[in-house]
Amino acid sequence: MVGSPVQLIAIPLFAAFLIPLLGKAWKELVRITPGVVILYLLYLSVDLLNYTIEHGRVVEVIAGWTPPWGIDLVFSPFSGFLATLMLFMGLLVWIYSYRYQTFEDYDDYEPTLKYYLLLMMMITASVGVVLTGDIFNLFVFIEILGITAYGLTAYYRHRDGAEASFKYLFIGSLSSTFLLLAIMIIYSQLGTLNMADIAVKAHELKPVYKITALVLFLVAFGIEAEMFPLNGWAPDAYSQAPAPVGAAFAGIVVKAGLYTVIRLIYTLFEVGGTYEYLIVMGLITMFFAEFAAFSQTKLKRMLAYSSIGQMGLVLVAFGIGKEEGVYAALFLMFNHAIIKSLLFMSGSYLVYKSKNKYISELNGVGKMMPVTSFLFALGAFAIVGFPPFAGFWSKLAVLTAAADSGMLLIIALILSISLIEVIYYLRVVNRIYFVKRDTDLGITKPTPQAMFSMLVLGAIILIVGFYPDVITGVLHKASATLLDKGSYINDVLSLSQTIN
Amino acid sequence: MSLGSNLDLLTVTFYGTAIALILIGLYAALVKRSLIKILIGLSIVDSGINLLLVSIGYLKGGTAPIFSPAVIDKNPAMVDPVPQALVLTAIVIGFAVTAVALALVIRLYRHHKTVNIDEIKNLKW
Amino acid sequence: MKKVIVLILLAVVAYYLVDVFSQIKFGENRFQGENVRDFYLDKSKNDLHVSNSVTSIVVNFRGFDTLGEVTVLFLAATALGSVLYRRKAHGEAVLFNASTIVRSGAHLLFAPILLLGAYVFIHGHLSPGGGFQGGTIIATGFLLMLLAYHDYKVSHGVLTWVESLAGLTFASLGLTGLILGKTFLENFLPIGTINDLFSGGIIPIIYIAVGFKVGAELTGVLYTMLNEKEYKKS
């Protein structure tokens, strides 16, 4: 083990304060430093993940006060897997962003500095959300995530970013209001903010507090996880933000949001009916999002709605519960991060010159940009779950999990909703390859570094598609950890007894 | 509802004011059409939440949680310092969000020359 | 119509809020046995020697939150700058100087305000107040000057330096604890006697850094926003 989990947060924070000074020495450092930091963190995180898979959770105490008194960070195979995934996606997004903007005044020093700072901190905050073991600390990280996301959504001044960002901010503020109220109720009754401690004491709560707190938490976290009906902000934010940021939203931010919902239901509270609630909400989310995606005329909005639909499927898988359900959900999250980011990255180059990003402007682009188009098509096939691509295995896992639990109706519903997905993705691929080009829009070649990120993602889709075993071991371990609530509580709270 | 059984004046004043602020703020945020008024609404909600949080930490007869030379040897009952620390964090975060929101409003105004959301409709609201 | 829906929604919210909070008795000692409140009060007095226990919670027990909080402010200033950035403004600014009385008054008050702010954050561990409060007071001093003189300049370079160095101080003090084999943000300096100016180990140092950082950041935010002047087409 080279480092401790707290470095995953502390080092980027340190770097964030340092970057404005480094920029004074050499401007290029503003672009390079975040990448170097993320690369180091990824190394650290992979190393920690290997360690935890062998030896179990690492619980890091902060400021010397053991839980439940102080704040703790928990690096388990589950949270560590998500953190590693986020950092990996973060690295690729950084590579893709490197010298991405080449027009207007976005190459000026100030916007560049701000873009990279916000991007790095968005990734850090997502990692923080996943690692923290304290409910108020979670609130702080969600707010950091929010502020960076608002800033990045409004980054382009020649789009309607400010509007999308304001919408996002409005809903985000309501979310944090509900979150604070819920934290307040928990603290007033249990006198603790530590998640493990809350999980132990949750049965002492009177039903009225428990239900109110649970509903408030679900609303607050549901907004972050793009759960229906609180996801109105997402398509606007995805489509107005710069392309790398859209990829980061799909690959990183929404994963942090989902994590909060899962932590809430699997660890914090045990209330009957929450699993069924997840299934129902997931199906409704899927249904509306896929129909909305079907009727979109703009490429990025279609991808955003499809992203929401996928999150619905993940919720269904988590709602099925048990080892297989959680395994399927984690596999879906992994695939979604990889594939949807690839779709955003390649898709935005396909319509780079277009102002409105209409799907019809993709006509015949396959001949002009063969590699990018191929990667987009690869992503499209993978996300709808065609064998032998990565997406196939995760969809199969969801269906198997549902079949094992005897939920045949759910299988039928998932399959029929997926059919819509297949139709609209194939429609796009059809336009790319088989429709004659009817616009005179020029094309922009991807930068070599952008091409590199996309190729890496494409390669992962193929590798996981042919040899799913490379990833399933970690996933099984992670899902077992999540379900083992007793050992989570024990690992966190046992520290307290050894010291006091 | 167990109203009436244990409600004294202080409870009504503090919780009542805080809840009233939250509701007023939510009303303004959801109904008003001006971006500035929506923001004012959100700030009022924040204030209400903060007031509620501080009220929860109050202890009857408790002093401020500061061991100043005058009280350190007397060991008095003290109010709960945790909600106060949480409120400090919440206030700062509220400020940060408001600042970003105002910047967005400035930019929207620069673009559309209005802050009425009915007239800013490039994206569906 | 929309108003009616909102009002119904608010009525539901109100019902549940009142229902829940009428059962939480105001001013009652709710916690028995070991609890966070008594633990913090006890340790603040006996282990940290910090007389303001709110400060010891903000900077030590929950110092990680505060590091996040400082980051939120920093990122808000960053996002604000990014949202409002433009290479050049078009037209001519419409601005007026305030009257002589306001200008003289602002000049007179400027130094005392800064001094008060510094006092508040230096004594954050002894009396009510601290880095956030002191920093805000300092920023109001600059706000006064910005309002009195339309051409009052705050150097962006200096602000960046203060902001970054203060943030680095906070983060490095945290990392030093880690390097010394303790935990992140753990105290490693002598704690002195309670109610002395030099007590509490790293807590006052961190709070002073926070004071500088908050002061610089709020001033930066105000300055960026005030530079968004109304322009007359020329």
Give the distance, in angstroms, between the N- and C-terminal Cα atoms of chain C: 45 Å
| Largest sheet, strands/sense/barrel of chain A | 2 strands, antiparallel
SSE order of chain C: HHHHEHHHHE
Q: Share of helix among residues of chain A? A: over 70%
Counting copies of identical and different chains, the oligomeric state is heterotrimer
How would you describe the shape of chain A? globular
Concise account of the structure shown:
The complex is a heterotrimer of chains A (500), B (125) and C (234). Chain B has a single domain, classed as Orthogonal Bundle (Helix Hairpins). Chain B has three helices and no strands.
Please describe what this structure looks like:
The complex is a heterotrimer of chains A (about 500), B (about 120) and C (about 230). Helix content of chain A is about 75%, strand content about 0%. Chain A is mostly helical and about 500 residues long. Chain A has a domain at about 270-490. Chain A has a two-stranded antiparallel ribbon. The longest helix of chain A is centred in the middle third of the chain and has 30 residues, at about 160-190. The radius of gyration of chain A is 22 Å and the shape is globular. Chain B has about 120 residues and is mostly helical. Chain B has a single domain (about 5-110), classed as Helix Hairpins (Orthogonal Bundle), CATH 1.10.287.3510. In chain B, helix 1 (about 10-30) packs antiparallel against helix 2 (about 35-55) and helix 2 (about 35-55) packs antiparallel against helix 3. Helix content of chain B is about 60%, strand content about 0%. The longest helix of chain B is centred in the last third of the chain and has 32 residues, at about 80-110. Chain C is an all-alpha fold and about 230 residues long. Chain C has helices at about 1-20, 35-45, 55-60, 65-85, 100-120, 130-150, 155-180, 200-225, and strands spanning about 90-95, 230. In chain C, helix 4 runs antiparallel to helix 7 (about 155-180) and helix 5 (about 100-120) packs antiparallel against helix 6 (about 130-150). Chain C is globular. The interface of A and B includes residues 146 and 170 of A.
